[in-house]
Amino acid sequence: LPCREKMVTEEDKIFAKNFKIDDLSDVPAGLPPHLKLKQNRVVSKKDASVDTADAIYSGSYVSSGVDNSVKLENFYEDFKVDVISCTETDMEFDMIGIDAAFANAFRRILIAEVPSMAIEKVLIAYNTSLIVDEVLAHRIGLIPIAADPRLFEYLTENDQPNEKNTIVFKLHVKCPKGQPRLQVLTNELQWLPNGSEFLKETGGSTSNSNSNSKPKTYTSFSCSQDSLPEFADNPITPTYLDILIAKLSPGQEIELEAHAVKGIGKTHAKWSPVGTAWYRMLPEVVLLGEVEDEKAERLVKVCPQNVFDIEDMGNGRKRATVAQPRNCTLCKECIRDHDLVDLVDLRSVKNHFIFKIESTGSLPPDVIFTEAVKILEDKCERVIADLS
Fold it and tell me: Domain named DNA-directed RNA polymerase RpoA/D/Rpb3-type: which ranges (predicted)?
């Protein structure tokens, strides 16, 4: 018999046009578990870590019906900053919902682009110590200064050092003869709110012969810095007063002036407001099975960071639990044991970063964090302006 073709009705056409396989009840929504793990986690194996790359292409999982593109509304929902601890010098916080590229950009800004005050010029009048002038100037330049850089302006080549862009310190120490060796610490640096006291050398011997002319120094302050309201009750000092500068033997002497100006770490490390700023992905420790009795004790003992703990299950049974996963450094000691390698899974969350800021003391860490956010915001605005 001849085969009769089935007639396609208008209803069939509408159904085919609107058909979506994801709408069926027996089709799982989103990515399957193994792809979800690959998208959001870095897994640390015994030999190497896997799935370290980020899939930033919008069509990376299009075959599974998942849109991987970056959307602003999703960023608003996912992004979060949680401050874990904050002291005068250290700050730890979690930055959640961002890509590693943004986290690294923030780290680089903290180190190289947040300004601070540091000693740039050292005028040495007398130095009979064992430390040569260049090394002494370098040591003094690395001393952190407790002064808010937001209160000062940048000193350019065409500017004259004044009370708005320069801080002057004086150091004059002598070890008397017959006395033991003297340690010169940063508490010997005295702030000169009126500017430099060293007379500036001039070309002729009669240039200062006029009694009415004011002797020229290396700065031209129009007013004393301690008369300004921001410094009236807050004198400028080195951040730490016990940093060793030099050691003087009896009869040796140091006399100098140190001029501090505003700068950024990109120019020189002495202007970096942080001793270090680093981040790491949030560790995730998963037990793939029950770790009991002798294996549990061995797992707790082998971990140097005390990530695991023992839970008493009664009847003399013990079970290992993940007590402090945040302490994990992914040292992999727990998976080097052949009996434990298949029971422990070490992972890192790709979009969750633990940040640590260690300030040099020139600025509090929370202020450094706020200034870095402002700089990153300004960079984004300039990019948007250039593209529009």
Answer: 90-386
